[in-house]
Amino acid sequence: MNTSETRYVSQQVIEDACEWAIMHGVAFRQADNTARHCPFSIVPMTIERDVYEHLKTVTPLIAKLISHVSEDHDFLQTSLSELAEADAFFGRLMELHREVHGDIINRIPPARQPLLLMRTDFMDDRKHGARVIEFNGIAAGMAPFGQRATELHQFIKTQWGSVYQDWLEDEHAIPADNVGMEQLALGIATAAKKVKAHFNEEGTPTFLMVVQKNEGNVYDQHLLEIELQKLDVRTVRRTFEQLSSKLSSGERQRLVLEDIGGVDVVYLRAGYQYMDYFSPELNEPICCQALSQTRLFMEKHHVAMNATISQQLATSKSMQMLLTMMPASEYLRWGLNPKEAELVKSVLADMKPINTDSIKWFAASGNKDEWVLKNQGEGGGHCIFGEDISKQLSRLPKEQYNAWALMQRLHPHERDKPTIAVRDGQQTLVNDLVSEIGLFTVHYKGEPVTELDGYAGYLIRSKPASENEGGIHSGKGILDSLVLVD
Questions:
Q1: What stretches of 227-344 adopt beta strand conformation (E)?
Q2: Looking at the domain assignment, is residue 19 inside a domain?
Q3: Residue ranges of the Glutathione synthase substrate-binding domain (predicted)?
């Protein structure tokens, strides 16, 4: 990269774009309650139209598969039992799962109604084509930022047309529509109104977003809330700690929040790590018991919920590995037809379990540049690359093997032209930008609930190929959007 003092386009363009971003909520909250704009690219990335259409077709099928897997409770308990022993957090999730659903012999019909808000992340590998990186079934946010990035690039195109054309890879490329914010809100509102109708209640349904305390990524959340309010849905934000003493049961398993009333949808933007359930004031003998019981309490009520405990288990890295390793024909038990099953199978990247044999294989003949080592963590910082893989495998305790997996490392296309990344109001030239494509889907009780047959827009995060961490909030990633070429 070149230094940020070098200017490649007018500073006026950068200032206009940054101010547009702040004005439209494309920002992170700082500790002092100021806001800084999210980092972004000056123009979109280019993708072939047939690749994009293929991903739009296959991603709702993946969500359909995960929806059915997540409701196959016997399969979850038997197939993830070794993960539960290897990873303490997932062990706790499995305990909660058994409390909700009973054990295999004493199965209990669940009260909660599964609302799967999912983001499936892909990279378009140079050799193998588009492949799944991971499933995101809990705290699967940033659809509003994805849509706003598309709108930001349209603003630059309109206001600074010559700059836009100068930096675009292909002057004939057409922007890909992105209505992720509206479609996600539509799916949530549809579920909320169905739950409200179940109780024969009139009036505005209530949406509860469970959030982390003092988090910075609040504007993306508020943008979704604004869209829900436009659809006549009341929105409420609470942490697990705030909810711990404020929830109660109404008639017919109605979930009731003090001073609010009946809750129709619960959307977890927290709950994927122990810290979300930790409260020092409680001084618990068993870590995080009380607040995880709050989540359990919600699941025992008739409320549309994302993520259910079973959805979180079904979108784990271990389940991704199991689905990748099994033949496509086995997907038919979860509602896919043979053609759909083959489509899903075609985009799953190879994965290998960690055991004595795979460790020996990797040490003897594994190509360190063709694999990445992953644990079960969500977000950045949970992947190990290159020479560090062997080091980690050599010191990994045997009892933790089942919490890790090797996954085929994807090498996406780099942009044909350099582009400009804008961060903290400064521009930087990037010569090797690569992109990760996240597609959103919404299914309620296994059925699609968007105007696009379950599809609900996209999120593009780009980063220099030389960087491993591509997160927008904490890594080296920047917001981006798509333009299509034939």
A1: 234-238, 247-249, 255-257, 261-262, 265-268, 304-306
A2: yes
A3: 206-314
